[in-house]
Design a protein that fits this description.
Layout (H helix, E strand, L loop, with lengths): L5 H4 L14 H31 L8 H11 L3 H11 L3 H26 L1 H20 L10 H20 L36 H38 L52 E6 L6 E4 H5 L3 E9 L10 E10 H7 L13 E6 L4 E5 H4 L6 E6 L2 E2 L9 E3 L13 E7 L22 E6 L9 E10 L5 E8 L5 E2 L1 E2 L9 E9 L2 E11 L21 E7 L1
Parallel strand pairs: 1-10
Antiparallel strand pairs: 1-2, 3-4, 4-7, 5-6, 5-10, 7-8, 7-9, 11-12, 12-16, 13-14, 13-17, 15-16, 17-18
Helix pairs in contact: 2-5, 2-7, 2-8, 3-5, 3-6, 5-6, 6-7, 7-8
Amino acid sequence: MAGVSEDLKAPPSAVRAPEAGRPRWTARLPRVVAAASSGLITGFAALGVAELVSAAIRPEASPITAVGGAVIDRTPPALKDFAVRNFGTNDKLVLQLGILALLAVFAMTVGVVALRHRLAGSAAVLVFGAVGAVSAAGRPDSGPLDALPSAVGALLACGVLYLLAGRLVPGTSPLSPASPPAGGPDGTRDGAGGAAGAGGAFDRRGFVIAATAAVAASAGAGVVGRRLNASGAAEAAASRQDIVLPHPASPARPIPTGADLRVPGMSSFTTSNKDFYRVDTALVVPRVDAANWRLRIHGRGVPEPLTVSYQDLLQRELIERDITLTCVSNPVGGPYVGNARWIGVRLADLLREAGVRPPSEGGPADQLVARSVDGMTIGSPVDTVMDGRDAMLVLGMNGEPLPFEHGFPVRMLVPGLYGYVSACKWLEDLELTTFDDYDAYWVKRTWSRRAPIKTESRIDTPRPFAGPKAGKVPVAGVAWAQRRGISKVEVRVDGGPWHEARLAAEDSRDTWRQWMWEWPATSGSHTLEVRATDRDGYTQTDERAETVPDGATGWHSVVVAVT
């Protein structure tokens, strides 16, 4: 027919939208990418809003911290040990990044689901909120409102995803349910929630505007929440800066001349605060205002609960001691041991003031359970705490108030015991009970109830796979056996005879001891091994044991290639 266009002559099946000439998946791709992006934005919104709400409750109630804490609580000891061994003090950062990665995958998946099922996809965001809320409410230190940040963040994020998904539905308003045509150009219909025709165009400009607004609002909420949380931390920091530690009534004796051999590459006798190891479960370091801090002592054998303030402790007789701390997670030759000068109050004196008697004197309690502000519980034998050793409530470390990372305002310290049964940080409660009646945090996770520090030694230099030159090579390191002291250190090469190393001057039996042996090195690959003997006559065993349940054993060895 004259005057009729070729398009009108063509059969209906030949009329296609411009995109229809492409494969169907390429036509869908922009919407799928936008949907995944909307899911990420939704996750970001949930975290930002939750951060803001947590500022009104406490920082530990934020979803990432709550979920991370729940993961740590449920991590098998072997996996926890693997994380500490391989990631060190970065284990918490790795955990948080892992949680964020899983959240990102979940959020993108939910965003894509919302593309076809708008209501169901948006409601799926509530799963994230439920996980965060349950995790927050289930923490040992949780309060009645700890679940609120996750719940509020998820509810608002649900609305954000619903609005963004609406922008991806061709020809629909973001506020109204989708009303797909009876059939797309290819005769298909979307599921409930929007048309999904391969060639359907969506409101790109509207989506970008809505997404940008959601990102900006979420970022603003997150920033405000962080600043509000930081303001509380700033008050705690100010309280720490105002503290002047009194001169101890019983000062530490001067470090003996010759206690630090100063061999290049070897650990210094005193570990600086910034280099001191940190192994704990706190994803957020507690920031406690010393002015508001209180310690409660109660339980079996305590006639009336005793409460003391930080100022009360400052006014008591203080002692100062050099003491080496060791983490039970320290592998053979590991870094989780350090020596510092501590200032504090004798714990035994405070317990006796509260009416406590050790079991050896007829007391009813054999376990002292220390509780941290973050819910950690650590159980120590009462007899050990009160046997005359310098167990203390620590206020200062290396001449300054405790750093926040190491327990400010007050931590506990018991020489000779691994940290998980003695060194509670951010202390707020001491309860007298029995080992039969209560298992502390790590004991519930298959670690031993009682854990005296084992005799150990470590080669600090030369480092593994080092290439020293042939000739005299100093082999040096540290050895420790708290409460017993080190009497001898020996080194051998390639399984040969043992050579006694020169010991540094001993500070006390509660500190580590440096050692050094001059090795007449010859060219080639060699294996160096070390073992220590304590003053009780015990020599380290060569039998290798993992850290669980009560500390690693074995000889530390280093392979070097002498040139």
